[in-house]
Specification:
By secondary structure, the protein is α+β, with helices and mostly antiparallel strands. The protein has two domains: about 70 residues, no CATH class; about 100 residues, Phage tail protein beta-alpha-beta fold (3-Layer(bab) Sandwich), CATH 3.55.50. Helix content is about 50%, strand content about 15%. The chain is built from nine helices and five strands, in the order H-H-H-H-H-H-E-H-E-E-H-E-E-H. Strand 4 and strand 5 form a beta hairpin. The radius of gyration is 18 Å and the shape is elongated. About 20% of the residues are buried.
Amino acid sequence: MVLLLLPLLLQQDPIPGLIEQLGSDSIEERELAAGWLADLTGVAERRLEETTRSSDPERAARARELVEPFPPTRSRGMTEEGDIVAINRKLETMKIDLAFEDTKLDDILAFIRDFSGLNIAVDTRIPNPPDPNALVTLKVKDLTLGKVLARLLAPLGLIYTITEEDVLLLTTPGIARVRRRR
């Protein structure tokens, strides 16, 4: 199946071809294209957003799955005011100012963890996890915690999702999408 998409991936700009494959008659081709686009979401986001308004319902629906925030997974018996709701509220309302220059990624995450009280972890299933000692520069003022995390994670090809165990899991879009389907 990868061989079917190989010509698209070798193009200088494979995104239009991959978006086209979201409407394929083959479920396998659609899934494969969605997986590639999930990993390229940072680059493809603008084009995927446009595709959400496509006249092809399958293509539009698949593009929406990739650009919409991943909904949290609910634990059995969790109330509307449960922990996941509280975590989302914190991500959407808690504002933070940061001025880190050439600081270890782990140190920035530790600061955000301590400031917010959130349980933040890097997904162990990431094939090439970010180097915790990589030096990062991040300067933000008066941004919500969710936007700060998105800005920190996007260059690393990562996003965050909330697990059933109330962990803010840093992972790839492709892994999060597979996890969400369970």
